């Protein structure tokens, strides 16, 4: 077990603000030892055993062959912070990816019923333009992923198939140092967490609206205007889902380059872009709210955001800006 991972484990257990903060609670007399949570006590004991074994104890064959000790050591050696902002961001992204898979199973009425009630035809040219723009953006972004994982991102499949998101958890399971984070790193991570939080809300709202409207459609309880609104919703998911995938990819790129940003003169440009992305996600939350139903406006918003993302990543000087 690496010394830095030991520190991450101890920092999580004792001191991280979003963790159990055992040190603070004990030192301030806020813990009743008689009702101290057993699971935390077990974690402290396991951590103590790991530290004793790695840094004080001598090699012991019996311990090495002990099944329980082997599991404890294996967990410790693969430990990544759970309660540091980066660790919390990792959990948010993985949860959001899982939520996004629900978009594969969104219920839809039979196509002939949709066409019968639709007052507009979905523009194939419009969808093609969206896909083409996305491809250009992802080609630019792909260069900034860890080199050994770039080939896992197949652009054609990424924009079409939600299942291809599953290569992102592999990236997020890589170890990212959480010790000695400069303030700039924490500022970037804070923005990324807010963006992912808004993405999660958008996904929840789209799934909820789709499922509830589908039930009403099949029960024939929707009025004429509501049916048209529902069709707009179905059309907009062809844009909202790729937009969420793009935001998750952008967050992934930033987290793997976040320490490089600290030394860049154009750091403010990156912060400005992330704030723009956050504003986009917040607006999308508003538009997709079941009380607003601004599905056409959502599509226009996404088009504008895609254009801004493309301009931003094209403007990056790869040699000077390591992102």
Automatic annotation (TrEMBL):
Top-level division of the source organism's lineage: Eukaryota
Keywords, comma-separated and alphabetical: Membrane, Transmembrane, Transmembrane helix
Transmembrane segments: 243-262
PANTHER family from the UniProt entry: ENDOPLASMIC RETICULUM MEMBRANE-ASSOCIATED RNA DEGRADATION PROTEIN
Protein name as catalogued: EMARD protein
Higher taxonomy: Eukaryota, Metazoa, Chordata, Craniata, Vertebrata
Gene designation per UniProt: Ermard
């Amino acid at each position: 077990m690496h010394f830095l991972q030991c520190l991450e484990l101890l920092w999580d257990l004792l001191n991280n603000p979003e963790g159990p903060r055992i040190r603070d609670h004990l030192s301030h007399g806020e813990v009743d030892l008689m009702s101290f949570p057993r699971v935390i006590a077990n974690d402290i004991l396991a951590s103590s055993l790991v530290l004793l074994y790695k840094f004080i104890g001598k090699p012991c064959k019996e311990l090495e062959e002990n099944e329980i000790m082997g599991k404890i050591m294996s967990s410790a050696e693969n430990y990544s912070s759970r309660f540091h902002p980066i660790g919390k961001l990792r959990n948010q992204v993985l949860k959001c990816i899982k939520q996004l898979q629900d978009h594969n199973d969104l219920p839809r009425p039979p196509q002939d019923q949709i066409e019968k009630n639709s007052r507009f035809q979905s523009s194939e040219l419009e969808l093609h333009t969206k896909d083409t723009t996305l491809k250009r953006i992802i080609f630019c972004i792909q260069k900034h992923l860890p080199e050994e994982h770039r080939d896992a991102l197949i652009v054609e499949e990424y924009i079409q198939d939600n299942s291809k998101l599953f290569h992102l958890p592999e990236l997020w399971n890589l170890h990212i140092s959480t010790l000695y984070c400069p303030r700039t790193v924490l500022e970037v991570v804070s923005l990324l967490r807010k963006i992912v939080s808004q993405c999660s809300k958008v996904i929840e709202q789209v799934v909820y609206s789709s499922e509830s409207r589908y039930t009403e459609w099949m029960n024939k309880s929707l009025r004429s205007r509501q049916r048209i609104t529902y069709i707009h919703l179905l059309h907009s998911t062809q844009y909202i889902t790729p937009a969420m995938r793009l935001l998750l990819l952008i967050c992934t790129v930033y987290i793997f380059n976040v320490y490089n940003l600290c030394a860049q003169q154009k750091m403010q440009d990156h912060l400005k872009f992330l704030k723009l992305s956050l504003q986009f996600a917040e607006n999308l939350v508003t538009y997709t709210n079941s009380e607003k139903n601004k599905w056409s406006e959502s599509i226009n918003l996404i088009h504008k955001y895609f254009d801004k993302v493309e301009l931003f990543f094209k403007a990056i000087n790869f040699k000077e800006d390591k992102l």
